[in-house]
Design goal:
Radius of gyration: 17 Å
Number of strands: 8
Bound molecules: 2-phosphoglycolic acid
Distance between the termini: 18 Å
Structural class: alpha/beta
Shape: globular
Length: 238
């Protein structure tokens, strides 16, 4: 049976003090998680050390991006081995915001994922169609191409895919459970039944259980609702 994996994505939010406050507050809370559910947060790189020093539970640390290169003259970049040395296990790659604002292509996403796996990190590879593509009924075509090119040559047992329709991210417009299920089922049909597939896009404590009950949805990548302690706990608790 596939495990469940719930990862918060803080994006460019929280400075050092706010990161400390979140971790101090969550350390005082009592909550129970399912033993088969992996959970964690994709933290801005500059706060990963603070996060790793203060975290007191099973929370995994993820980064929000990595370099496709191992080391060298790449000003501003952060490598897989640097992240690993701070206890990072997952790395979000090809988030739609990086595809849109940093012009990342399926090819770059693939190179980053290859580099992550080579250095022992688990890539969470994001795919998803825009509103126009959704309205033009091109979702499967677009997602199929992203999957084919971004996952090229990767060992599917070493990655996670996050299906995030761009029109549902940060808009409060979650895809219907049926629609999210249909696309995640489609992704399983063109990859492997073993692949872990998250849904992302306006997930919160009230809709996560129904989403995770869908047979092809194995977890969630959550932005807004992962920023506050109580709402993060509502995502990961049993
Ligand atoms: P959201 O973001 O939960 O705020 O919609 C999801 C994401 O971008 O991963």
């Amino acid at each position: 049976m596939r495990k469940k994996i719930i990862i918060g994505n803080w994006k460019m939010n929280k400075d050092k003090k706010e990161t400390e406050n979140f971790l101090n507050e969550i350390s005082k809370k009592k909550f129970e998680t399912d033993k088969d559910t992996i959970y964690g947060i994709a933290v801005p790189s500059i706060n990963i050390e603070t996060f790793s020093l203060l975290k007191t539970n099973e929370m995994k640390i993820s980064s929000q991006d990595i370099s496709q290169f191992d080391s060298g003259a790449y000003t501003g970049e952060i490598s897989s081995s640097m992240l690993k040395s701070f206890g990072v296990t997952y790395v979000v790659i090809g988030h739609s915001e990086r595809r849109a604002y940093h012009f990342e292509t399926n090819k770059t996403v693939n190179l980053k994922a290859v580099n992550a796996i080579k250095n022992g990190l688990v890539p969470i590879i994001c795919v998803g169609e825009t509103l126009d593509e959704y309205e033009n009924k091109q979702s499967k075509e677009v997602v199929g191409k992203q999957i084919k090119e971004s996952l090229k040559g990767l060992d599917l047992s070493k990655i996670v895919v996050a299906y995030e329709p761009v029109w549902a991210i940060g808009t409060g417009k979650t895809a219907t459970f049926e629609y999210a299920q249909e696309i995640c089922e489609f992704i399983h049909s063109i990859t492997s039944k073993e692949l872990l597939i998250q849904y992302g896009g306006s997930v919160n404590g009230s809709n996560i259980k129904d989403l995770l009950n869908q047979p092809d949805i194995d977890g969630a990548l959550v932005g807004g609702a992962s920023l506050e302690v109580d709402s993060f706990i509502s995502l990961i608790s049993k």
